[in-house]
Every structure is written in C-alpha cells, then in structure tokens.
Amino acid sequence: MVYQEVGGERQAIDGAFVLKDEQEVGFALGAYDGAHPLVIDPVLVYSTYLGGSGEDLAAELAVDQARQRLCDWLYAVDKLPTQNPLQPVHGGSTHDAFVAKINAQGSALVYSTYLGGNGVDLGYGLVVDSNADVYLTGVTNSTNFPMRNSFQATLAGVNDTFVTKLNAQGSALLYSTYLGGNGEDEVRGIALTSSRNAVVAGARRRRTSRSTTRSN
Questions:
Q1: CATH classification of 57-205, choosing from 1.10.390.10, 3.40.30.10, 3.40.50.360, 2.130.10.10?
Q2: Which end of the chain is less enclosed by CB atoms within 10 A, N or C?
C-alpha cells in the first residue's frame, strides 16, 4: 500500500515489490508528488502456523499458477493437519516428509499429506509444473517408501534419494522412485525441463570396506 496525503485527502500511488537479488527486496513506484511525504506501508496478506505436536521444519516453497502455495517439509513428526491426503498418518520412525498446499488467501488447506515409510524420510526440494503437479525430492532410509512406476523400486544402500511426482490434488502418486546405490545418497535440488522431466542433483558417499591381511 503506497499513498500520499495531499490537501487532506489520501491519494493512492502504484507500487510493487521488486526482488533485487536473493537477499534484497525493494519497491517499484508509480508517479508521485515529490513535494509531499510518500508512505510505503507493506501489508500482511496472511500469516499462519502450520504444524503438529512435534518439531516441524519447512524446506521449500513454490507457487502454482493459481497463486496457491505449496510447502515441502524437511520433516514432520505427529498430528499435523491433513486434508485430502495421499498418506493420512505418519509412516513410522522419527521423521516423515510432508507436503501442504494452501489456498491463495491463506485461509484453508487445499491438501496436505505425509510422505514416508518405516524409516527416516526428509524432503529437501520441490517444484510445480503448469498443471500444478508437484515434484519432490529428498532422502530416505525407509524400505517401504511409497513407490509407483519406479525406475528403482527398492532401497539400495544406507539411504537413497527419492524422486516423487504428485498429482495436482495431492491425492495420488504419478510416479515415485528410489535413486541410489549401495552407499549414502542425498539429493538437495530438483528442477524441470520444458518437457517436464525432473533433474536432480546431490551427493553420493560410497560405502567402503576394510580389508585386513594376516602374516604367518
């Protein structure tokens, strides 16, 4: 909200936020009278808690074309609010990944769901395409992480990356796969190509074995 008080009347001035770089936000302003004070009053559109009975941490945020927000949670423990969930309850162990979609007004959940199995599941990356389908990645050591149309259907190592695609309603897996070898694999970033192929990047720590020799 940008305005000036001129002659006892409030006059609105066009204004918008501008992202200058990853660390700085500024303002773009329309024409105004430099002889009078200019008031720039950022308005809180909405703000809300979203969590359960334990420790909840958000890792990523995306916005679809309907200006609805999607949160990818690094982990969620118990009693998180779910709405039209693919997975209504916590899968087990200490942490599950969690995805929530909030409407453009911030007043209601479009959907929210756990995503995890019997081990530790951590979500690190999220992107959304023009159909509002959601692509997620993270790390898991669950042997029963939700799978569908999988490139790799079983856990191969200590922990593997997972790559999962949810439909726009959050109610079904379009695909979900492990991605890893016999060591420790962890992806932190995900992006989409123009043909909606998912591209992920991360790190792999190879499992090493110790050998011993014995002399007589």
A1: 2.130.10.10
A2: C
